[in-house]
Design goal:
Blueprint lengths: L6 H32 L3 H27 L5 H16 L1 H62 L4 H18 L1
Helix pairs in contact: 1-2, 1-3, 1-4
Length: 175
């Protein structure tokens, strides 16, 4: 096992690190595009950023384990950062413009597909809502009538129980 790497091996690891950083930049644009398509709220941006960092950390761990047997070297980390920056300032600028066009196309597509479904569901909800309001009024009226009918007849168990309690308490008071 070599403890001191040769210059050729260090250069090879550095070049692999540049490529890996470039791939991490591509992954960043994929996450950014998904984030812009789905939502741009603070909580969702935070979640997506944490997910990106977790994926990058795991991928970096696997990369170091495979390429350099788990030894983290400064030049490898600099290669990641430099590769990411090369991507971000060169192809990343192009990717931002392309992703803007992709996002608008996806939104137009989903708007066209879901517009008829949305109209139909709104009509159904209005019909169900008006029926539910009518049903609620009927239930309230029926509930009031039921209570009145129960109080009208003294022989019903519901009223008999309260009648017995009231008569017992009156009898105790008269003694």
């Amino acid at each position: 096992m070599d403890y001191i790497q040769g210059l050729a091996e260090q250069t090879e690891i550095f070049l692999y690190s540049l490529g890996f950083g470039f791939l991490l930049g591509i992954l960043y644009d994929v996450f950014r595009t998904l984030r812009l398509i789905i939502s741009n709220s603070r909580g969702f941006v935070f979640f997506m950023d944490m997910l990106y960092f977790a994926v990058c950390a795991f991928a970096s761990f696997c990369f170091i384990m495979v390429v350099d047997c788990g030894r983290v070297r400064i030049y490898a980390a600099l290669g990641w950062v430099l590769g990411w920056l090369i991507y971000y300032f060169s192809f990343g600028a192009i990717a931002i413009k392309v992703s803007g066009a992709v996002i608008s196309a996806v939104r137009r597509f989903f708007a066209a597909v879901f517009a008829p479904i949305s109209r139909i569901s709104r009509k159904i909800c209005r019909k169900i809502g008006s029926s539910a309001r009518r049903g609620k009024k009927i239930i309230r009226k029926t509930d009031k009538k039921t209570k009145f009918i129960l109080q009208k007849y003294k022989g019903i168990v519901y009223n008999l129980n309260s009648f017995i309690k009231n008569s017992v308490s009156r009898n105790k008071g008269s003694e």
